[in-house]
What we know:
By secondary structure, chain A is α+β, with helices and mostly antiparallel strands. Chain A contains 5 helices and 5 strands, in the order ββαβββαααα.
Amino acid sequence: MIINLWINDKxxxxxxxxxxxxxxxxxxxxFFSVKRGCETSNCGMCTVxxxxxxxxxxxxLTVRANGKHIATLEGLQAEALEIGGFMADEGAEQCGFCNxxxxxxxxxxxxxxxxxxxxxxxxxxxxxxxxxSGYMGQLRAIKKYLAAEKEGxx
Amino acid sequence: MFTINQYxxxxxxxxxxxLNQSRINVILGGTLWLKMGRKKFNKAIDLSALGLDTxxxxxxxxxxxxMCTLRQVETHQGLDQHFDGVVAKALESIVGVQLxxxxxxxxxxxxxxxxxxxxxxxxxxxxxxxRYKGGIVSLADYAAMRPDNDILVRVLIKKDPRRASYSCFRxxxxxxxxxxxxxxxxxxxxxxxxxxxxxRARRIMFTVAGTPSEENIQSIVETVRGSIPFGTNLLGSAAxxxxxxxxxLRRNIEAILMGGAQ
Lengths: 154, 262
């Protein structure tokens, strides 16, 4: 099926198989920030924004992205770098494999929730698994990042 | 991984229904569960273009289109103001925001998953489902039916002054529930639903005039523990679930007596 979509604001037109998952399509186009972690719709590693909403690209049919806009970490470098800096300052990660999906969802959360408290942050990021850490470093980093953003906005 | 031979973006429910009569075709929900199977489908029927992704609210009821995502239902302001916010409470424990942005109400209810939190909470609210050919049937009856070739078009929830509470037990946030329980009270009618038994949710109705005494509550607990079957799987044993059932049930009843929700 011929589809037409936008990845990081660049237009693509392709003939894709009806059962091709968005994750495989995005990687075939060179967007390697999108990773396959669990493949059971659980880990959040493959998170991309589909028309602004965070979704699991491992479980989304590419044909369903027809006519839609997709954002991957490659298209959100400025925000990614900033959040990554806060994560590094807190020593939040060890292997870093979960990082791209995690940062994608932090960006989605920042856009969707206004002034989230700790409980809201935990609930929003529940679908992003990290197997090295106990999430405490990430939580500190996110709180500091959101506080810095708020200060910057004022 | 499942395979699909042809993708069909349905132009009408009639077309989707006709295609769905073949056993080798399938209607797509969010494909979160479907893709984990190994089935080979001929035609995958997508209902995305039929305007069934909205929640309509009028004076009497909520009408939730089958293509609404769980996240849409969870964050709907009107629903949140009813039934003590119990719907959002039940849905927010499901895996993560990303999954709930994909999973559809129709897909999850049609599949009648044993682990479903959605089925448990909506059965307690006495929801109904509207099918394309089969008309409207209560969700409790629908849940007990074998999956057929009809299409679940909408979920209907009456706006009654029901109080409700939901609780579940999970080993970690976002995991499958070991057990879940929803209770609602409308006048002297109490609905108790237990799900993730691990089989699909079951409902029992009780009539209790006025505020239930400890004796009444104990009798409800005994009936639930005695007449709802509990099973064993990797998450927990039947005996463990039977103990959990009493704890969750009592918490919900107390929450309702204290004014609803947990």
